[in-house]
Each structure stands twice: as C-alpha cells, then as structure tokens.
From TrEMBL:
Protein source organism: Paramicrosporidium saccamoebae
Superkingdom as given in the UniProt entry: Eukaryota
Mitochondrion keyword on record: yes
Name under which the protein is recorded: phenylalanine--tRNA ligase
Cross-referenced InterPro entries: aa-tRNA-synth_II (IPR006195), aa-tRNA-synth_II/BPL/LPL (IPR045864), Fdx_antiC-bd (IPR005121), Fdx_antiC-bd_sf (IPR036690), Phenylalanyl-tRNA_Synthase (IPR002319)
GO cellular component: mitochondrial matrix
Length: 432
C-alpha cells in the first residue's frame, strides 16, 4: 500500500514538471528556461540552405576560396542543430562561471542543462574527435542582444580550426620569417601558454595570418588594408582580432588565436602531445551586409521576392551584387515608460525580448529616450522609444497601437514579476 502511494506520488510529480517541444525533442523547463516563441520560430529557418540567400552566397564564396588556394586541406561542415549542453558551450571552452555570457540576460536556455549555442566554437571538440585536423564549421548561433538595424538575437557564424605538429610548422619557417614582426605586434604583451615553444606559436600565428589575409583579400579586394591587434578570449591564448579598412571605416572581421591546450579534444593530444592549433570565428551577417550594401539585418529573414530575387543572378566569380532598396516604408514611433526600484538590476535585454515576442520583425530600433531618479518614491523612471517599421508594407496606427497595448500588458506582467515594478505606473503613448 505504501509503495503504491509512493508510485502514484512519483507519477504525479513527474507529470507536474512542465515540458516544451523544440526541434522535435521534448525538454523539461525550469527557472533558467527563457526561449520565447519568437526565438523558437527561428530554429526551423535554414538560411544557408536557400541558394539565393546572401549568407549562402558568402559561405559558398569562402569554400571556393579555400578549395582554390588550399585544395584538399579543409573540410567544410554545416551544423544545423543549435541545441547543445551548457557544459559544451561554456565549461569545455574554459568560460568562467562568472562570465556575463552565461547569464540568462545574454543567452537562451532550454533549461539549466541545455541551451542554444552562442558560438560555433561549441562544436570544435566534437569535430576534433572525428580525427579531422583542418575544418570549417558554419551554423546559426543565438545571443540576446539589442534591437537595431545591425543586431538580431540569431546570426550565422563561421568557425575555422587548423591543427599542426611542431615539425609541420618548422618546415615553413623560411616561408614565414618575414612575418615575425607583425606577429609580435599583434600579440603584444600577452603571456603565451607555458606548454608552447614561443617559436612554434609565432609560426602557427603566421600561418593563421597568411590564411586569413588571403580570405580577406578575396572578399574585400586585393588592395585591402588589414590590421591585427591583441584581444582576449577565454579559449585562445594569445588572442588576436583582424580588421579590414572598407568603405572608409575599419571593420572587425575575425576573432582568432591559438587554442588553449585544455580545449583540444584528448584524442588530439594522444596522437601528438605537442600538437598546436589556431582557430578563428567570423559573423557572416556582418560581412554580407557590407559586401552587398544591406542596411537592415532583418532583411536576411525576409521572404519578400523583391529582396531574394536581387541575388538570384549572382555569379560565382563576380563582384557581390549590391542590394537596391525596394521601398522605405515610414516609421511609427511609440514610447513606453515605467518605474523600477533603484535596488534592482534591470537589464534592457529583458525588455527587448518582450518586444521581439510581441512584434517580431516589425521593430527597427529601441533606444533609451530618458531616465531619471524620482526621489519622492525612490524609484528609477525608464522611458524607451520604439521605432516600428516593416520592411515589406506600410504599418497602420491601428496595428501599432494594438501592438503597443499588448506590449504594455506584457511589460506590466513580466517585469513586475521579476522587478517588483509599479504596475500602476507604466505608460505608453498611443496615437488614437
């Protein structure tokens, strides 16, 4: 009798755990779950599979470059499933528990064990485990971010890795000797990994330097000005970033460096205890927007034929087709303001996620218009300006006002739960 009661209680407890189905798999939800319907809807879109997508065109252009310059050296892999264990995305890449990227304000969690990958670096070790030494990985990655014409919570990232033995690099010493000065300048005062011979590190960086210079010249032109400077990533040391001068400004293109030995899959070091590897990452949207003159990142997700058809005639070896705006529909601006306790740490991403869920692809930008401390009630007043603008049609005041009313209700409900905000003091302007 007791055991039967316990079984019934156990079944009831199991049934009470909320679950959610994403990409055909069911996941338990917990206090870390923060994937909204708007984000979940992006998971089924495979932009790299669409032949005329500027992102797919860029990916194929990169493949052609390496097939031509380095035939048979690199494997090209597309990883479409963005759901990974938290350990794989952070712990295995030496990202500290206190790092801000782990916060639910910055990343998307299915639960405390599973998440949407924030970078393609999360798959490097599993590819190394297959025995591959040189490869490129591409796929969609997810980060909670601001709302404007150049940021979205989902974008596509290219990751490159090349593993060497010291003897392979020493055989290229004469070829790379003229680059030593550039390499030393790029790594600056960074401390090298103690397991690495400084000469081997500089040769590996020289190979990375030559590899990425060649790609940038293919993408941006043979006469491109390129510069390198030191930076920091938890999973590489030393770390560098590469910028190219294009359209009268410096554009950051790559983050790169020498992979930390702890990041290498154990099988790599079993085969060669002295193995060393470089790695780099590149956001495809940022480069495609510049090359094609695309002025709004939302356009990559558009199904409007006026956008897609412009790139269908792109020839493999010709200059990137420049996007011609088919219309600039008028914006409609609305404000929303609310009070928050001064003791609470409010993150704007909380508001941005609500806005994206209420009006996906209809908001062009959100900016902080005003804030002040109301000493009478000891609360902070925050006012955000929302710019509604569709890329495909003219929005009506009625539609925007309905969205703004729904937004106000959602902000009241969700931020009140997390911040004890004053529900009776949320205002939004409606042009009725």
């Amino acid at each position: 009798m007791i055991s039967a009661c316990r079984r019934r209680f156990s079944l009831q407890t199991m049934k009470s755990i909320p679950t959610r189905t994403i990409c055909g798999h069911e996941y338990e939800m917990d206090s870390m779950t923060n994937i909204t319907p708007a984000i979940a809807s992006r998971l089924s879109h495979k932009l790299l599979s669409q032949p005329s997508s500027p992102l797919a065109l860029l990916w194929r252009r990169i493949q052609r470059h390496f097939d031509s310059r380095h035939p048979g050296v690199f494997d090209f892999l597309r990883h479409d499933d963005p759901i990974v264990p938290v350990q794989q995305n952070f712990d295995e890449l030496l990202i500290p528990a206190s790092h801000p990227s782990r916060s639910p304000n910055d990343s998307y969690y299915l639960n405390r064990k599973m998440m949407l990958r924030t970078h393609m670096t999360a798959h490097e070790r599993e590819v190394m485990a297959t025995g591959r030494k040189s490869f490129f990985l591409v796929g969609d990655v997810y980060r909670r971010d601001q709302i404007d014409c150049s940021h979205m919570p989902v974008f596509h990232q290219l990751e490159g890795v090349c593993i060497f033995s010291p003897d392979e690099l020493l055989s290229r010493e004469a070829e790379y000797s003229h680059l030593v000065g550039e390499i030393e300048k790029a790594i600056g005062s960074q401390v090298l990994q103690v397991e690495h011979d400084p000469k081997i590190v500089k040769l590996a960086l020289a190979d990375l330097y030559v590899t990425l210079h060649g790609l940038m010249k293919t993408l941006f032109g043979e006469n491109s000005r390129i510069r390198w400077q030191e930076t920091f990533f938890p999973f590489t040391r030393p770390s560098t970033e590469a910028e190219v001068f294009y359209d009268n400004r410096w554009l950051e293109v790559f983050g790169s460096g020498i992979l930390q030995r702890q990041v290498l899959h154990p099988s790599v070091l079993e085969r060669d205890p002295n193995a060393i590897a470089w790695a780099f990452g590149m956001g495809l949207e940022r480069v495609a927007m510049v090359l094609h003159g695309i002025n709004d990142i939302r356009l990559f997700w558009s199904q409007d034929d006026r956008f897609i058809s412009q790139f269908s005639s792109q020839k493999e070896d010709s200059e990137p087709i420049k996007f011609v705006p088919f219309s600039k529909y008028p914006p409609i601006c609305r404000d929303i303001s609310f009070y928050l306790p001064t003791t609470r740490d409010f993150q704007p991403n909380e508001l941005y996620e609500i806005i994206r869920d209420v009006a996906p692809d209809l908001v062009e930008a959100v900016t902080l218009a005003d804030e002040y401390h109301d000493t009478k009630i000891n609360r902070m007043s925050m006012c955000y300006r929302i710019v509604y603008r569709s890329m495909e049609k003219t929005l009506t005041d009625t539609l925007v006002n309905n969205l703004q009313s729904e937004l106000r209700a959602r902000v009241t409900r969700q931020l009140q739960q997390s911040h004890h905000m004053m529900a009776d003091r949320i205002f939004s302007n409606l042009d009725l």
